[in-house]
Amino acid sequence: MLRDRNEPADLQAGLLALSPSKRRAPTAGDPDRILPLAFAGLAVTLIGNGIGRFAYTPLIPALIAAGWFMPAEAAYLAAANLAGYLAGALAARRSAMVLGSTAAMRWAMIATVVSLAACAWPLGFVWYLFWRFLAGVTGGVLMVLAAPAVLSRVPPARRGRASGIVFTGVGIGMAAAGTIVPLLARQGLPAVWFGLAAAAALLTVYAWFALPRDPDAVAGEAAPRSRVGRSGLGVPLILLLAAYALDAVGFVPHTVFWVDYIARSLRLGLDVGGAYWILFGLAAAGGPFLVGLIAERIGFGRCYIAAMAVKAAGVALPLLSESPAVLASSTVIVGALIAGTTTLCSGWVLERVGVEHHRQVWGWMTSSFAVAQAGSAWGFSMLFATTHSYTMLFALGAAALGCGALLALASSRR
């Protein structure tokens, strides 16, 4: 009898739950919204870094051969892009506060498209200097804002794969630059720049509508484990910041000297060096998603520490042998973890400071990475000019990554 008396109330509650006014509206944290959000982030990093920054590297020989720039000028343009990347990383949080995160990314994507199209006209070094610096600024802004905008809308259990998809854009750009840019260069340099601008424009249209309007909404987020306020970073995050800066130092030997090492030092030629660069880019495209899946199982912190150690071994492999198998292994390992460690570090920062402070701390992390990358690239170039030895470069890169792994381990224990 008690059951009979309760049935009308239960039935009424069930009907109310199913009524239009009580049904839960779909949110960005729903499983069917995770992939569109992640692919929007992928488009953003592909525009800002894969195309805006890394497509310039395979263009340098063509720019010099066509007489547009002298070798030293082409190098200065690359340095201007790095300086712009640092400025963009530092300005990203402020621009998001003024414009809103999504609006800031939209303006940065538009500016990237314009900068690429403007480079189709050879109007002198100063003209190019401005546009390459602007491309660096927009790349820094998009790198800082893309991951927080997506991950703040993704449930914690799915953040590994979502973060991996977002940073896959960097690797896709590197792989595409190594294959498509040389083909377009046969039609002339203006065709290359217009082609890059058109690709970035199409991706901008997609990301424009796919990015969330309110990227700071939280999906199943617990209270932050660490406090980041006026007191600044605590010791554990300072250790992690230092580890990520050392990651940038280990980033340099393969991204700057690898093709030249294979082509000239090992005397295998530019074609073979280019083939290894394509392999490097393909590994960079698949690495972030793979490590993201692993991080969902063992945690971002453990995965980041292990990835730094494995990456150190990959950079050190050329010290052991010059065989094709060792060169290919080093290419794949380092390529996969170039953006893979970025994926893991961003996810670990989110776990430790929460959604509220993720954008702020990730901006600091990206800035430290940019400073370390630019400084070590200059230092390694000076060292190579003095010693003409690649051995020192690989040894120093591997040592930096090993020290970074130890610092990350210390950070986790604090």
Written description of the protein model:
It contains 14 helices and no strands. With about 425 residues, the chain is mainly alpha-helical. It has 2 domains: about 35-215, MFS general substrate transporter like domains (Growth Hormone, Chain: A, Up-down Bundle); about 235-414, Growth Hormone, Chain: A (Up-down Bundle). Helix 4 (about 70-100) crosses helix 6, helix 9 runs antiparallel to helix 12 (about 325-355) and helix 11 packs antiparallel against helix 12. Residues about 1-30 and about 215-225 have low confidence and may be disordered.
Keywords, please?
414 residues; mainly alpha; 14 helices; disordered N terminus
Overview in brief:
The protein is built from 14 helices and no strands. It is an all-alpha fold and about 425 residues long.
Note the main sheet.
none
The number of helices is 14
Based on the coordinates given, report the CATH architecture of the largest domain.
Answer: Up-down Bundle
CATH topology of the largest domain: Growth Hormone, Chain: A
Structural class: mainly alpha
Query: Terminal Cα separation, in Å?
Result: 60 Å
Count of separate structural domains: 2
Series of secondary-structure elements, N-terminal to C-terminal: HHHHHHHHHHHHHH
Helix fraction, binned, reads over 70%
Could you tell me the number of beta strands? 0
**CATH homologous superfamily title of the largest domain:** MFS general substrate transporter like domains
Q: What's the rounded overall pLDDT mean?
A: 80
Q: How large a portion of the residues is in β-strands, by DSSP E? A: under 5%
Uncertain ranges: 1-29, 215-227
